[in-house]
Structure formats: C-alpha cells, structure tokens
Design a protein that fits this description.
- The complex is a heterodimer of chains A (212) and B (120).
- With 212 residues, chain A is mainly beta.
- Helices cover 8% and strands 39% of the residues of chain A.
- Chain A contains three helices and twelve strands.
- In chain A, strand 1 and strand 2 form a beta hairpin.
- The longest helix of chain A is centred in the first third of the chain and has 9 residues, at 63-71.
- Chain A is globular, with a radius of gyration of 23 Å.
- The two termini of chain A are 17 Å apart.
- Chain B is mainly beta.
- Chain B has one helix at residues 3-14; strands at residues 27-36, 39-53, 60-67, 70-77, 83-90, 92-93, 113-114.
- In chain B, the strands form two sheets. Chain B has a five-stranded antiparallel sheet, with no helix packed on it. Chain B has a two-stranded antiparallel ribbon with strand order 6-7.
- The longest helix of chain B has 12 residues, at 3-14.
- Classes of the chains: A mainly beta (212), B mainly beta (120).
- Chain A binds chain B through residues 8, 10-16, 20, 22, 27, 29, 184, 186, 188, 197-198, and chain B through 1, 3-4, 6-7, 10-11, 14, 33, 56-58, 77, 79-82.
C-alpha cells in the first residue's frame, strides 16, 4: 500500500561505508515516473495510482495508448505500473515520482524478471543430486524415479521435471537502500536484483508480511 | 550517459589517486587501519605481492609474508579506506602473473631477484 518507482538496472559495483566495509550494490536508474491515472473507489472500485516510465518515441505506441497518456499530459511512455493505495486523492495526474521518495537505510522490495535460462535440467532447475560420474555409472544427470508403478499408474501433477527456467517475475525482499542520487536519478541498493543490466525494475518500500 | 559510465563515475568518487604502481613480485608495506577499543591506529603489514586481481574499485592484491615460521597471506582491497597507505619497498623480478609457487617453497628458495628498471 505504498508507491514505488520503476527503473532500469544498470549493473553492480561496490561502495565503501563509513566503517570502510565494501558493500555490494546494484545501481538502478529509477524514474522520474509520471502519474498517468488516478483510480478511486468511486470510479474503479479500488484506489490506486498508475505510473509510467521509459520515454519512447511517439510511433512506438499505438493510438489507444497515446490517448490514455495524453489525458495526463505525459510524454509517450513504454511501461505502466499500478500501485494500490489506501487513499489515492493526494496524487494528481501528471505528478512526478522521483528517487528522492526513498532515503538511505530504507528497506525495499525489488521486483523484476529473472534471467531466462531456457530449457534447464533437473540439477539446475530443482537442485537434484547428480548421479556418480564414474565407476561404470551411466546415470549422470537423470531424474531418478518419477513415482510409483501400476498404482497410481501416472505421474502426480507437480512432479519436478526439466523445463523452462527463469524469465519469470521475481521479488527480492528486504533490500537496503545504500545511497540516493537525486541529481542523476540513481538508487544504490545493497545486494542483487533480478535480471540483467537494462532490465525493468520495480522498487517498492518493503511490504510487511506476517504479524511481527 | 551509458550504464557503465555511470557505474564508473560512482566508483571514481571513492577511488584513490595517490596509489603507487604495484606489480606482482614487489615487496610492499601496507598501512592497515585497525580499531582497538574505540581507538584507531595504523598497523604495518609487509610482504611480497603474489597476486593482483580485479579492476576499478574492486582491485585487490594478495600480500604474502612469513610470520613466526607460518606463511600468512592477506588480501587487500587497495582502494579501501581501511588501507591508509601502500609503499613499495623493493621491485622483484618475476616471470609469472601469480606467484602461488612461493607457497610450496621455504627459506632461501622464496627469495626473488630484485629489478632496478622500475622506479620505487
């Protein structure tokens, strides 16, 4: 129930903190995001704001998309994202959301698309153990048993097998903001975030999970 | 600005400019800042550079010395604020980028020939 920011992953480096420790950080160029739609309970049944990020040329979007963006007076934007809010009335169309909404030390959740690894086998995808590589063994990376025999006579759904790995939405929770550079729209976040450099990243204040 | 340029400019803020040119095989004296009961002091550590790794702000050196008969290797991030100073005491003549073979040697065999064509 808080507003985040969209950005682009630039890569990783390290910075030294006051104590002289090297902190691994991911550099994210985030925002400025434009509020493109304000949803309220009266009009849409729930309250939220929609923000856009990633300036593109006019011909990259179709007419309905351009028309939607024109309502808020925004330039053509590639990505739109919605943030649910308790009360969306404090936001107005065309408002800018910048990195200064975040502060160093803040705990954030980072959402992105993980690196696609294509069709991956059992070891890489599900951390299966490997068979013996020598002593006459021919079972190197095979799956082993997939279940019982005649009864039930089928493989149970959800059996972990080889298949597409990665390329899915991934959230990394509770990362710390190390530095905010409002001038260059940069966020330095401790730790790794999903995707390769250039990937679209959604940074949100950490969601509280559980009662504690 | 491209991604790598931005990252390099972030690194440049914390990189030291006054470092001497360090080569593998050099004998160096590293001033390490250590915390002792709330007080800071500099502890010298002297030894042979057996490896250089990394680039940019991640550049580090491995310094080996024999301390009380036991081989000790410490890895220093040379741009770290905890490294107060690095001084080259002696230039060594070596034919390897990594001097890991020194680990298997003791006594006289660990000596390196000095070279004089590089200034200290």
């Amino acid at each position: 129930m808080s507003v985040g920011i969209l950005g682009t992953k630039l890569g990783m480096t390290q910075v030294f903190d006051e104590a002289g420790r090297a902190i691994p950080v991911t550099v994210i160029q985030a925002g400025p995001c434009t509020v493109t739609q304000v949803k309220t309970a009266q009009t849409d049944g729930y309250s939220a704001i929609q923000v856009g990020y990633g300036e593109v040329s006019q011909k990259a979007l179709n007419k309905p998309e351009l028309g939607h963006l024109a309502k808020s007076g925004a330039v053509p934007l590639r990505h739109l994202c919605e943030y649910r809010l308790e009360d969306s009335s404090q936001f107005e169309l065309g408002q800018q959301i910048k990195v200064d909404a975040f502060s160093p030390g803040q705990v954030v959740d980072v959402i992105g698309t993980s690196i696609g690894r294509g069709f991956a086998g059992y070891q890489k995808r599900h951390n299966f153990k490997r068979g013996p590589m020598a002593h006459g063994s021919k079972n190197h990376r095979l799956p082993g048993s997939t279940g019982a025999g005649t009864t039930p006579g089928r493989v149970y759904p959800g059996k972990r097998m080889a298949g597409r790995l990665g390329g899915t939405q991934t959230t990394v929770r509770k990362l710390t903001v190390v530095r905010v550079d409002a001038e260059r729209n940069l966020l330095l976040i401790k730790g790794t975030v999903p995707g390769k450099p250039g990937a679209l990243i959604n940074v949100m204040p950490a969601k509280k999970v559980g009662n504690k | 600005m491209h991604a790598q340029e931005i990252i390099r400019s972030i690194e440049a803020e914390q990189m030291k400019t006054n470092l001497p040119e360090i080569h593998v095989g050099d004998t160096v004296k590293v001033g390490v800042i250590i915390q002792e009961g709330g007080k800071e002091r500099t502890q010298p550590y002297e030894g042979v550079v057996i490896s250089k790794k990394g680039s940019g702000i991640n550049q580090n050196i491995t310094v080996r010395r024999i301390f009380q008969g036991v081989g000790v290797e410490r890895v220093f991030l040379i741009h770290s604020p905890r490294i107060e100073s690095i001084k080259v005491l002696r230039r060594g003549k070596v034919r390897r980028a990594k001097l890991y073979y020194l680990r298997d040697r003791v006594g006289k065999a660990t000596r390196l020939k000095q070279r004089f064509d590089r200034p200290l």
